[in-house]
Each structure stands twice: as structure tokens, then as C-alpha cells.
Specification:
Strand content of chain A: under 5%
Number of domains of chain A: 1
Shape of chain A: globular
Order of helices and strands of chain B: EHHHHHHHHHHHHHEH
Structural class of chain A: mainly alpha
Number of helices of chain A: 13
Largest sheet of chain B: 2 strands, antiparallel
Strand order of the largest sheet of chain B: 1-2
Radius of gyration of chain A: 19 Å
Distance between the termini of chain B: 20 Å
CATH class of chain A: Mainly Alpha
Oligomer: heterodimer
CATH architecture of chain A: Orthogonal Bundle
Largest interface: A-B, 54 and 52 residues
Number of strands of chain B: 2
Strand content of chain B: under 5%
Chain lengths: 306, 362
């Protein structure tokens, strides 16, 4: 029982950065923009977040700086793909290459430094409950924020008018423009939000997951977050489930290695990618039958006529 | 007042030729600022990074060695992109080519096999890369699944497969538990062009591929089909061209070239399989393809410039004590500037007066 509890606790912490970054990308893609630069925005959030937390001694300021750094990098992407209608795929890849490089430059002076990581919630009695206590009432603030974020995004997308407008921009930018909605402005805000979430997800790593900076510490989580959005077929609640599933696989892979189940750990690691390709094929195949959940204008540039 | 994009009546040919030059110039200017921020003398740093390697024979050979895989991959990618098929997974196809070709080197190791091994490895590498690229292409034409996402996802599957092989079944039993296969035999090793240097036959193969691509794209019906399907898909359909078959074709060609690049790289410079045989060639080649304007000769020049960023980054690390990550910063910036300049080929930027009165009347 205690082992199961310990494993579930690590699953939650492993899933949180994926969930944070992917929820931002979900909103971005729902607005019709494909930003492949999540990995770059995450790692720049991690580097700036750690630098700020180390300098100020405050995890909160670190998180804010991670958010700002992710959003700033996303701003470059927005200027290029929305302002100049540049190719989104290539711009996203450029963003990742640039972000990884910049994070290395920023991080060099912080290698080997340690900070005090994010505090865990402790409510007397509740946090001491067997099994559920630590899991529900003993997490760090990022975990609660990530779950609240999903609820907020669901509410925004499906229960508010701006959310409806954002979805319409993603599904048919020409019609949304004809109705008088500022397509590029809405997309810019979505991209900045996505960058902020990716920055926060990245900052989670050095601020709470392992309280020090390692070069390249996002280790491909940005790509998994990208996969996650497709895996969840652009639905917020499915994203929550998917994030814990993918996070669970990474933890399971560590334990499978230790217990010697005979399953190669690389096969486990590749499951998120393989599952995503399969989901992508299935939802594309269903397109003719039940209507595809993918935003119809995803990845297409839009230049308003006057 | 705001800025807006206005479509040009015709593509601006002047800017099409100038845009890579402007992009490189902007990268250098930004690089100088970056060096100044890092506390290095900007002009001297730029000279060490971008100019000194060009005066050193050893560094020039290294540029050719690094440019070889970039040229091969980018030529294939340019055919995909011209046909509006978005293969982003060249890195994975590169690794699969190294694996399928390297398999032959592993199983013939120490058997005294003849000189047929190397050509057979090349064939297997190209075949492996092509088949791996056909997976996302097939999903695209059969189910309409985004080839961008599926080809990208398969990169990480290929990385993990290579990792599994060199740690598991293919690990060198005499390799002190390092994750690597045994060193390839001589018959499985690409010959060098100049004795004692690393410049190998692969560079000649890359040049031949450039020439072949220039002929195919410029002089054949297939080349016309590729460009027409990409530029005017409806017109191409009326002309009787099958865009689905073309997606499969361009993916297969680019996968084959990426796979060939993979097995050439392994047999010529690494001489065994191990994780991390590619410093991201498959992704850097995307920058090369764009910087080279999807033109074979342009790609050749662009590949040498990108190779220079790798070599310059290494020498700047040694003599300026700047982190190697600077290479990535330069490459990312360069792609940004290229993409930004490319917009000016199709559009001009207009300063517009905000029309408040019109909004009010609505």
C-alpha cells in the first residue's frame, strides 16, 4: 500500500509539467495555431525560473519569471507567424532550437547550484489521512494550479462567449473574420497564453521536481506535451487523463527497469508517441463519420484583407 | 496607425534572391549584440566564429564533412516541401537508415565478408529511411492524419529504438558495457578522399545528389509535377496529377535520402552505432532547406553555412570560452530571420491609418 502511494505521488509530480504545458498548447491549437516550440518555451521557462528563484530566494518569483520567459518567446513566434504570416511549422521548430540554445547560455552560471524547492501543502489531520491525505491535500501549489487551469480552460472554451469566439477562429478563420472578430488579435493572445503555460510547466522542473538546474532538463517533455494535445483530441478533460497516463508511463518505466519485468524501458518510453500516432490516425479516420475534433484551420496562416 | 501585410501582384524576385543574404546579415548583427552581452569583443568574436574556420584547411574539411548529411537530407525535404508535403521527421529517418544499414555491418562483423558490404549497407539505409518515411505518408493519404505530427512523433520512436539496440541485442560484448556496437570492419567503412583526413566519399555522393535533384526539378515532368502540386493543387488535379501518389513519392525520396545520410554518417565518421549519432542533423536540415530557398544549389550553399555554424561554435567554445549552446542560438535565429524575410517575397508591409470612423458607423 505504501509503495502504491509512493508511486502515485511520483506519477502526479511527473505529470504536472506535461499537464501545464499541454493545457496552454490546447488553447493555442483551438485558436487554429500550431506551435511546435513547446520544448523551447518550457526550457527557457525552466532556466529563467531557476535563475530568478536562485537570485531572489522565492519560488513564487521564479514561477512568475518562468511564465514571463515562456510568454516572451511565444511573442517572437506570434510576431513571426501571425504578424508576418510565416510558416508555423518551421517557426515552431526554430523556437525550440533557439529556446534550447538560450537556456544553455542563461543556465551556465547556475550549474551545480541548489534552491529550496516549492513547499508542499500541509493541512493538519487532512494531510495525514491514510492514502488520500498526501495525494489530495499534500501537493505543491503547481499541482493544484494545473488542475484548476484545466477546469478554467474547459469553462472558458465551452461556457463563455470569448471561448466560443476562440473556437470559431480556430475552426474557420475566414468566417470569424467576416463576422468581425479580430482573428489575429485573438490568436496572438492564445499564443501568449500558451507560452506562459509552457514557461510555467518548464519552471516546475527546477522549482519543484528537482530543485537544481541541469542543462536540457526538459528532456523532450515539450514533445510529449504536444503529443498529449492530439492524444486528448483537443478536449480539456481528456487532457487531464492523458497527462496522468503519460506521466504514469514514465514512472512505470523506471519501476519496470528496477523490477526486471522483461519489457525494454525504451518500449515503455515510446508508448506516448506510438499511442499519439494511433489516436491521430483514428480521429482522422473518423473525420468523415462523426466530425473531426481537430480545429479545422489548425496550422493555416491567415492574412486579413481590408 | 498600424502595420498590415499586402499581397504583391507578383513574387518579388529581387527579394527572393536577397532574403537569405539579409537573413544572414541580420543574424550576424544580432550575434554581435549577443557577444557584447556575453562580455566578448563583438567583432573579434564574429571573426573567430564565422571567418577563421574558412582560413583553416582542417576546418574547411570538417565543414564539408558536416555539410554532407545536411545536403542529402535537405534535398529530400525540399522536394517534400515544394509538393506541400510536410516531412518533419527526417531526424528519425536518418536514425532508421543508420540502424538498417548498420545492421549489415553488425552481422557481418568479423566474418571476412567482401567489398559488397558497404554498397549493400547504403542500399539498406536508403530503403529503411524510405519505408520509415512512408508510415506518416501512408497515414496522411489513407486517413488524412497530419503528417507533420505523425512524422515528428516517429523521430522519438526511432531514437528509442536505436537506444534499445545498442544497449541490448547489438551491444559490443567487448565494449566494457558502453552502449555501442562493435567498430565496423574496413569493408563496412566509407573510404576517405584524402589520406589522413576525415573528408570521405559521402561528400561526392552529396554533390551527385544535388546535380540529380537540379535535373529532376528543373528538367523533368516529375519536377514539374512536384512544383505544380505544391503551388496550385487544383490545377494539378485538373492536369491529371495524383497528389496522393506524389505525397508517397516525395516522402519516400526524402526518407531514402535521410536514411542514406544516416548510414553514410555512421560508416564514414562514427564507425559504430551509439545513441546520439546525430547532433540534430534532421532538424538542422529543415533550416538548410528554407535558407536554400528549396533550390538544390541554394541548399548546397546553405548547408555549408550551417556546417560553419557547427564548426564556428566549437572553435568559439575553445577560444572564447562561450557555451556550445551558442550554435543553437545562431541556428534558431537564422531560421527566424529567413522566415521573416520570406514573407517579404509574397507581401509588402504597408503602414495603414486606423479607420475609427468606419468602425463607429457599423
Amino acid at each position: 500500500m505504501e509503495l502504491v502511494e509512493a508511486i502515485l505521488l511520483t506519477v502526479i509530480t511527473a505529470s504536472t509539467p506535461l499537464l501545464l504545458a499541454a493545457s496552454g498548447e490546447l488553447v493555442v491549437e483551438r485558436a487554429g495555431v500550431l506551435n511546435l516550440g513547446i520544448e523551447g518555451m518550457m526550457i527557457i521557462g525552466a532556466a529563467c525560473g531557476f535563475a530568478a528563484a536562485f537570485t531572489t530566494g522565492s519560488v513564487f518569483i521564479g514561477a512568475l519569471c518562468g511564465i514571463a520567459a515562456g510568454a516572451a518567446l511565444a511573442g517572437v513566434f506570434a510576431a513571426l507567424t501571425l504578424g508576418l504570416a510565416a510558416n508555423q511549422v518551421a517557426s515552431g521548430l526554430a523556437l525550440t532550437i533557439l529556446g534550447v540554445g538560450l537556456s544553455g547560455l542563461i543556465g551556465t552560471s547556475y550549474i551545480g547550484q541548489k534552491i529550496v524547492g516549492a513547499a508542499h501543502l500541509h493541512i493538519p489531520y487532512l494531510s495525514d489521512l491514510p492514502f488520500v491525505g498526501k495525494m489530495v491535500f499534500g501537493q505543491d501549489a503547481f499541482v493544484y494550479v494545473s488542475v484548476a487551469l484545466i477546469a478554467a480552460i474547459w469553462y472558458f472554451l465551452y461556457r463563455t462567449r470569448p471561448g466560443l469566439v476562440l473556437r470559431s477562429v480556430g475552426d474557420n478563420h475566414a468566417s470569424a473574420h467576416a463576422l468581425g472578430y479580430p482573428v489575429l488579435k485573438i490568436r496572438t493572445l492564445a499564443v501568449l497564453f500558451g507560452g506562459a503555460c509552457a514557461g510555467l510547466g518548464g519552471a516546475y522542473l527546477p522549482l519543484a521536481y528537482t530543485p537544481f538546474w541541469v542543462s536540457g532538463m526538459t528532456a523532450g517533455r515539450g514533445w510529449i506535451a504536444l503529443a498529449l494535445v492530439v492524444f486528448a483530441s483537443w478536449m480539456p478533460w481528456r487532457l487531464l487523463i492523458g497527462a496522468y497516463l503519460f506521466g504514469g508511463i514514465t514512472i512505470l518505466q523506471l519501476h519496470a527497469q528496477a523490477t526486471g519485468l522483461g519489457i525494454p524501458s525504451q518500449l515503455m518510453s515510446s508508448l506516448p508517441y506510438l499511442a499519439t500516432v494511433i489516436v491521430l490516425v483514428v480521429i482522422s479516420w473518423m473525420r468523415g463519420k462523426a466530425g473531426s475534433p481537430a480545429p479545422a484551420s489548425l496550422g493555416l496562416a491567415f492574412v486579413p484583407d481590408r | 496607425m498600424r502595420l498590415a501585410l499586402e499581397r504583391r501582384a507578383e513574387r518579388s524576385i529581387a527579394i527572393a534572391l536577397l532574403s537569405p543574404v539579409i537573413a544572414i546579415a541580420l543574424t550576424l548583427v544580432t550575434g554581435a549584440i549577443l557577444f557584447a552581452l556575453l562580455g566578448k569583443p563583438p567583432l573579434e568574436a564574429l571573426r573567430i566564429y564565422f571567418f577563421d574556420p574558412l582560413t583553416d584547411p582542417w576546418a574547411l574539411q570538417e565543414i564539408a564533412v558536416k555539410a554532407t548529411p545536411l545536403v542529402l537530407i535537405a534535398i529530400g525535404l525540399s522536394m517534400c516541401y515544394l509538393a506541400n508535403a510536410w516531412n518533419i521527421g527526417a531526424e528519425g529517418q536518418f536514425l532508421i537508415g543508420a540502424i538498417t544499414g548498420g545492421w549489415l555491418a553488425v552481422v557481418t562483423h568479423g566474418t571476412g565478408a567482401g567489398y559488397w558490404v558497404l554498397p549493400a549497407m547504403m542500399l539498406l539505409g536508403a530503403l529503411g529511411g524510405a519505408l520509415y518515411a512512408l508510415i506518416p505518408a501512408f497515414f496522411k493519404v489513407r486517413f488524412g492524419a497530419s503528417e507533420i505530427l505523425s512524422s515528428l512523433m516517429l523521430v522519438y520512436v526511432a531514437e528509442l529504438l536505436l537506444d534499445y539496440l545498442v544497449r541490448g541485442p547489438w551491444r559490443d560484448p567487448k565494449g566494457f558495457n558502453f552502449p555501442t556496437t562493435a567498430e565496423f570492419d574496413d569493408v563496412a567503412t566509407m573510404p576517405v578522399l584524402i589520406e589522413g583526413s576525415r573528408l570521405h566519399l559521402g561528400a561526392i555522393i552529396a554533390l551527385l545528389v544535388v546535380a540529380a535533384a537540379a535535373i529532376v526539378l528543373g528538367r523533368t515532368l516529375k519536377g514539374f509535377e512536384i512544383r505544380l502540386v505544391g503551388a496550385a493543387p487544383r490545377a494539378a488535379r485538373f492536369a491529371g496529377f495524383d497528389d496522393k501518389a506524389l505525397t508517397l513519392f516525395t516522402f519516400a525520396v526524402s526518407g531514402a535520402l535521410a536514411g542514406l545520410a544516416g548510414i553514410i554518417e555512421v560508416s564514414a565518421t562514427v564507425h559504430h552505432l551509439q545513441p546520439g549519432i546525430s547532433p540534430g542533423y534532421g532538424f538542422t536540415a529543415i533550416i538548410v532547406a528554407f535558407l536554400g530557398r528549396l533550390n538544390p544549389v541554394g541548399i548546397l550553399i546553405a548547408a555549408m553555412f550551417l556546417a560553419l555554424t557547427f564548426i564556428g561554435g566549437e572553435s568559439a567554445q575553445i577560444s572564447l570560452k562561450v557555451p556550445l549552446d551558442l550554435t543553437k542560438v545562431f541556428q534558431g535565429m537564422l531560421l527566424f530571420y529567413v522566415l521573416a524575410c520570406d514573407t517579404l517575397i509574397l507581401y509588402r508591409i504597408r503602414v495603414m491609418q486606423t479607420q475609427k470612423a468606419v468602425h463607429g458607423a457599423r
